[in-house]
Amino acid sequence: MVGQKWVRLVTAQTPTNIAVIKYWGKRDETLILPVNDSISVTLDPNHLCTTTTVAVSPAFDRDRMWLNGKEISLVGGRYQNCLREIRKRATDVEDKEKGIKIAKNDWENLHVHIASHNNFPTAAGLASSAAGFACLVFALAKLMNVREDEGKLSSIARQGSGSACRSLYGGFVKWIMGNNEDGSDSLAVQLADEKHWDDLVILIAVVSSRQKETSSTSGMRESVETSLLLKHRAQEIVPKRVVQMEEAIKNKDFPSFASLTCADSNQFHAICLDTSPPIFYMNDTSHKIISIVEKWNRAEGTPQVAYTFDAGPNAVLIAHDRKAASELLKRLLFYFPPGAGTDLNSYVIGDKSILQDAGVH
Ligand code: ADP
Ligand code: DP6
Ligand code: CO
After folding, report:
1. How many CA atoms lie within 13 Å of 164's alpha carbon, on the beta-carbon side?
2. For atom 5 of ligand 2, which residue has the closest CA?
3. Residue among 129, 218, 308 whose CB has most ligand 1 atoms within 8 A, to mutate
4. Whose Cα sits closest to atom 16 in ligand 1?
5. Residue to substitute in 27, 216, 245, 314 for testing ligand 2 pocket (most ligand atoms within 8 angstroms of CB)
6. Per its record, what are the GO molecular function terms (predicted)?
7. How far apart are CA 324 and CA 359, in angstroms?
8. Which long-range contacts (CB under 8 A, 24 or more apart) does 281-285 make?
9. How far is 57 from 114, CA to CA, in rounded Å?
10. Ligand 2 proximity of 217 Cβ (cutoff 6 Å)
11. Alpha-carbon distance 40 to 173, whole Å?
């Protein structure tokens, strides 16, 4: 190590991903190994995303992290697992411009400071843990010059939060559950890149940005322990659905994509209800959004919009195209007019011009 008064910084930005075939249940809590495969779509990096800066300096005496401006504890568990796995793979770093030279063996004695910020609600069912841990692992890997492919990085991010492994790729992504006990084959692969089906428009209706009462981690643990439906879902239903979903994505078959997405979201929330004590992630507004979409899809004869809800009340709405997205927005604004005391407080929109199409400025 040359010199003592230096700081090396790396900043990364990672989008969140929303599962269309859900991960809900672990077979190994420490390694975070799931009971079934899952499939997601990664959102546009310009919208819902995490920005993380990692810094290393000989002046730091311990690892520290700030999340949305507040210091959080790194003791135990997931953060340590990610840090350890990345540190293990650190290599030589040379920054000639700054005159910084770090040898492979120096890393075990160096500490990092991490500052992360989500530009969307944290722990509210919009997959902040996915964007958060994917971004952390990616930024640390760059800082420490880790030479691993995205598949390997995804399996490290998985040990931070399961859904995070899918945020290392854009487009449509599958998390393969794997068979190995050590988790080495439980990783994400890209099914199709972001250009493959770019007619789709994703709208997010933020029903509540409050932190959920039951975290995904404890919710799914309770479901594994108490829901009899969960086993049936994991073993009988999801394997078939994953094959059908891959086919629908490949062929850009929106009716199949929409019916599988909606059915899987509803089944996941049915598992939550089948948990003892039952977990309610959706609320009346979520249910009302489902009814609006279902009625509209039925009236059209062919689905225009798919809905999916993660572990929270917020709706992720995937429209067939811009026209359907604009019509959807009009309908949402009709049923939940802004300022009329409804529960739907804001929209996060993939493409701002859709707002203009819908007459909102
Ligand atoms: P969500 O539905 O938002 O993913 P979870 O209950 O799965 O909610 O996870 C929330 C937790 O994820 C937070 O309490 C925090 O521990 C972690 N997390 C969220 N954002 C970040 C981030 N940017 N960096 C690291 N960890 C994060
Ligand atoms: C409903 O990945 O947040 O969003 O692995 O315990 O961190 P941990 O849980 P997390 O669970 C996500 C559950 C989900 C569905 C999904 O993203 O597949
Ligand atoms: Co999460």
Report:
1. 31
2. 162
3. 129
4. 129
5. 216
6. ATP binding; diphosphomevalonate decarboxylase activity
7. 14
8. 281/125, 281/212, 281/214, 281/219, 281/309, 281/310, 281/311, 281/312, 281/313, 282/309, 282/313, 283/207, 283/208, 283/313, 283/343, 284/343, 285/207, 285/313, 285/336, 285/342, 285/343, 285/344
9. 12
10. yes
11. 5
Q: Which residues lie near ion ligand 3 (Cβ < 5 Å)?
A: 129, 216
Instruction: Pick the atom of ligand 2 nearest to 129's CA.
Output: 3
CA of 60 to the centre of ligand 2 (A): 33
Chain position carrying tokens 């609006």: 292
- Inter-residue contact 65 to 114 (CB < 8 Å): yes
The response to whether residue 121 sits with its C-beta less than 6 Å from ligand 1 reads no
Q: Are strands 315-319 and 201-206 parallel, antiparallel or unpaired?
A: antiparallel
Dihedral sign computed on CA atoms, order 271, 276, 282, 284: positive
Ligand 2 atom nearest residue 164's Cα: 2
Q: What's the predicted TM-score (pTM) here?
A: 0.95
Question: What is the mean pLDDT of each successive set of 10 residues along the chain, which is 361 residues long?
Answer: 78 97 97 98 90 96 97 92 96 90 94 96 91 98 96 98 97 97 96 96 89 94 98 98 98 98 98 98 95 97 97 95 93 83 57 61 52
Q: Could you tell me the distance, in angstroms and rounded to a whole number, from the CA of residue 309 to the centre of ligand 3?
A: 12
Residue listed under structure tokens 């029903």: 207
Strand partners, 202: 318
How far is C-alpha 320 from the chain's CA centre? 21
Q: Is the ipTM of this complex over 0.90?
A: yes
